Structure formats: C-alpha cells, structure tokens
Amino acid sequence: MDSWNESCQACGAGNGPLTKFSLGKDFFGRPYDRLSPLSDQSPKWYCAPCSMHKNLQRDFRDIYDEFDKLRAGHISELAKGDEFRRASLRLQEILTMLSAPQQQSPFLSGYDVTLLMERLNTLTMPV
Fold this sequence. Notes:
Mean pLDDT: 82
Order of helices and strands: EEHHH
Helix content: 40-55%
C-alpha cells in the first residue's frame, strides 16, 4: 500500500500523508512489533490525527492491562510508585485530549478512560 495516496483506515480522510507504526515501545518502555507473526499481518494506515489517537489507545490499553495484572495479584508495572503516578497522569492527559473540541476518537472513549481512572483511584498507590 502506498502511504501517500490511500485514505485513512480509521476516519476515511484522504487529504494527507498516512503513517503506520510497526516497531516501537509501549507506555512502560517495553519493545513491541506490530508486524510480528503474532500480530496483524495487514498493517493499517492512519492520518496524523488518527495516528495520535491510536497512540492514545495503545497507552490506555497498556495501562489497563497492567491494572488487570495488579488487581489479580500478578507482577505489574503499576506496583511501582513512579509508574503508578506516571500512568495516572497519562490517563488524565488522554482524557484532556479526548475532551478537546473536534477530538472525537475512532479508537477510545472518554468514558472508558474515566472508568479506568476511577478504578485506579480505588487502589492504594504503591510507594
């Protein structure tokens, strides 16, 4: 797929360059590869706003997964005080971005972010 002449696979916009992210690090700094044999073999292409929202979704999902581990009593990055605070701050940032005018996300709802923030607030923050 040519990234310059197709439309965004989230919003359908076709008026600009599209990007995809196949390698990188998750919110907690762990490497990931979206093109690995275990992931989607047909990567999606997104316009700049949708790429930003896809990154917000990825951070939300990473934090949510660590929250589930912590709640289940498993080893979690959120058991570290600094990571817990950083994750809480990131959720606040995500909610702020989703609340901005003209920032409807095709991937993530403000309700889901608020719910996770409330659940995190019920936990005792690690020191």
